[in-house]
Amino acid sequence: YTFSLYDLLPPQADSIKIDDDNQIVTITYSEPVFTNSTGSGDIVADDFNVTLQGGLADLTDWEIQTITNPSVVEFSLTLDGTPMGEEELTITSVENQVFDSAGNALHVESLSVLLNEKQTPEISSISLNHANDELIVYFTEPVYPYDNGFNEIETEDIDVKIDSGIATLVSFEITQIGTPQENGQDSVIVHLTISG
Fold first, then answer.
1. Stated pTM of the model
2. Is 9 helix (H, G, I), strand (E, B) or coil?
3. What is the tens place of the pLDDT at every residue in 43-83?
4. pLDDT tens, residue by residue, 129-148
5. CB within 10 Å: which end of the chain, N or C, has fewer?
6. CA atoms lying within 13 Å on the CB side of residue 72
7. Beta partners for residue 13, in sequence order
8. Cβ-Cβ contacts under 8 Å for 143 (sequence gap 6 or more)
9. Can you say whether the dihedral through the CA atoms of 136, 137, 143, 145 is positive or negative?
């Protein structure tokens, strides 16, 4: 006689990831998961608790996306505020609410992921020397000339104007970058040539 052993191994999460726009969180499981202990029914919102802690953004709503692959569960997020990259999203399965096809319950587990930073860099302050020929521009965070997070700010990346008075700006040039942070610059020094 031959026989097969019963499947007693519960499903488990293999990975969690969030898309670049902080709109969809995807959890991939080791096998298809269901909302009923009979191994049937798509996962529903009541099967999970979702929370967001820290940072500036708030989680106002979330829902389960339409299931197309029972091994993958996608969570659609609605946020209020712009994430600063310190917000931690935690998804916790509810006890005896998620099952595999054999009826094995997923152990209660919490999976966390940080939201992607979406704050816009700003000029925090400007300092002009007494000779009126050197301007230091400080930013709220490291800045780059491209959205790939590489390279140094160059003269053509900024614009300097004199709006009033009798002096005129002949030219300006970035002569030095400030403290590098993750290949970016949190300040730049601009040499000014002024007439009048």
1. 0.75
2. coil
3. 999 999 999 999 999 999 999 999 999 999 999 999 999 99
4. 999 999 999 988 888 888 77
5. N
6. 10
7. 29
8. 121, 153, 184, 185, 186
9. negative
